[in-house]
Amino acid sequence: MPVAVLTDSTAYLPRSTVDEYGIHVVPLYVVLSGRSGREGEDISSADVAKALSTRGQRVSTSRPTPGDFVAAYRAALDAGADRLVSIHLSSELSGTWDAARVAASQVGEHIVSVVDSRSAAMGTGFAVLAAARAAADGADRDTVDRIARAAVDRTRTFFVVDTLEHLRRGGRIGSAAAILGSALAVKPVLHVEAGSVVPLEKVRTSARAVHRLVQHVVEHAGEREVSLAVHHLAAAERAERLVAELRARVPAIRELHVSELGAAIGAHVGPGAVGVVVCLPAEEDADGA
């Protein structure tokens, strides 16, 4: 394909999809028990869930380096592409997008377009998937870029966590909100707004939080044919129940992906977290064109 699509390891796309469309994935780094490794290659979701459940163990993450991106961009060009679209984790949550921009300036901004997904997980992944499908159909770089950005605008991410402490430690949510939530035993429903993690609603129990999560998804989807993704960390049974409820209550599901969060995002949400990403149809799809 003349246009190659790249992303980072926090998109959590199914491996079969990555292989099918030849998507290039640049891993983030996770520091665990004094060792640093690449997400999904050296350190797994299970490694992070175990560490976060062990008293005294800390987990941190770091972005890929500009050099990592330069190497990925050159590999994609060497494989036959002549233009690149690189779509990444929210710039409000990570320096990954910034590192990609630095690398693009070195390779050539007329060659590489860098897109901020303003989200995470399949909040990024749906934009990557839309871009990869357009590239596979032969679209030029500007069109692939436009389609990716349009998918970003159509995507919402909702999630619940067992504790806000991991988000607080990672600087992904304000300390005041985290401390208040812990003191009152609040189980918040959160969402990603303008690239940042923001409390959407506060409830008293985990069961109620998941119930309200589903209600928000149902209300946002309406009668439209939507794409959904369900994520979890060390909460497979809860995710399965969530999938069953969404299938029963969302009237038109185009595609539904289920995956465990990787180490980089899992380190910030903690074990027990579940989330749903909703991608609305493009206007031409909604109009039946």
UniProtKB/TrEMBL annotation:
Organism from which the protein derives: Blastococcus saxobsidens
Q: What protein name does the entry list?
A: DegV family protein with EDD domain
State the source organism's domain of life: Bacteria
Q: Does the keyword Transcription regulation apply?
A: no
InterPro entries membership: DegV, DegV_C, DegV_domain_contain
Entries under PROSITE patterns matching the protein: DEGV
What keywords sit in the KW lines? Lipid-binding
Query: What GO MF annotations does this protein's record show?
Result: lipid binding
